[in-house]
Amino acid sequence: MKKIEGHIHLVRAIAGSKCQGRLTPIGDGRAIWDNGEIIHLIPEGWGDDKFLAETYLDIMKEEGIEKAVLLQGTLNGYQNYYSYQTVKKHPGKFVAAFSVDPFADNALEIVRRHVEDLGFRAIKFEISQGGGLHGFHRAFRLDNETRVSQIMHFLADYPGFVVTTDYGDYTQTSYQPEAIVNLAKRYPKMDFVVCHLSFPNADHLDRLENALQQFASVDNILVDISAIQDIEGEETDKFPYPRCQADVKLAKEILGAKKIIWGTDSPWSSTFNTYHQLATWLENTDIFTEEELEDVMYNNAERVYFKPENVQAMLDAEDPALKDLK
């Protein structure tokens, strides 16, 4: 079965920054936050203090993964330029989203450069309180914050643009499924992807149902199901993850198979479960028919992220900042 990894992070240099302070690599795939918390960020054999495209290409070949979507987050630190370099070096193999802090004075300038000069056609808003912008900014709403609106108004000139959002779980000030609905209706020519299936909890499926019902009637909202094993606390011994199965069954019932994108959120997620397990768990369930599984594992990401004109935009891009170096 063909597969597109819909949520992966390459890490050229660990540069995380969130509510725990800055993240510094300490070797052996581990890193330490300024508050003293140590995390195992990169699985054994994937890299000591980085996770590079060449390493992941070998993993893709081993797991039969044809393409991948490169996303950004404050956990690893934004890897925007490395993602651009990777897409250019491996044409057709990857697409990439960039990230920006909308509260930075030069945010709109950064957005213009990434879209106009570098050809990005996707943006990732990592706004979660636990792992993103809400951890070090005042609470804000994506659908009515002026600085975000400036960015969205600019992106409206690019039909087919993809806006991907991680807003954390319901306990966090960042949790705002209704804001995604408002934005998707306001910008019907863009696609919106909600990461991590809106942070499910199989013991509270009514809460998940409420979020998914909000998305159901809006054609340009999809969800990815990356990292739900981590969120549900299911590790290797729980494969193929009964709690995650309950979550995804509900998503299929409400949204349908054409609005669900498979992904893993590796490398970090692959420190809790093997990448092979994360790449094959759905095949070991009876949630989807074969045709539906092809949509979830490949077709949906192809349709949303790998739009031909979006792929071509970055392949055609030439970074003007490098002209003086030639």
What this model shows, in words?
Helix content is 35%, strand content 16%. It has 11 helices and 12 strands. It has a 5-stranded parallel sheet with strand order 8-9-10-11-12. The termini are far apart.
What is the multimeric organization of the chains shown? single chain
The share of residues in extended strands comes to: 15-25%
Secondary-structure class: alpha/beta
What is the end-to-end distance?
Answer: 44 Å
Radius of gyration: 18 Å
- Provide mean pLDDT, rounded: 97
What's the helical proportion of residues? 25-40%
SSE ordering: EEEEEHEHEHEHEHEHEHHEHHH
Number of strands: 12
Strand order of the largest sheet: 8-9-10-11-12
Report the sheet with the most strands, covering strand number, pairing sense and barrel closure.
Answer: 5 strands, parallel
What low-confidence regions span 5 or more consecutive residues with pLDDT below 50?
Answer: none
Question: Can you tell me the overall shape?
Answer: globular
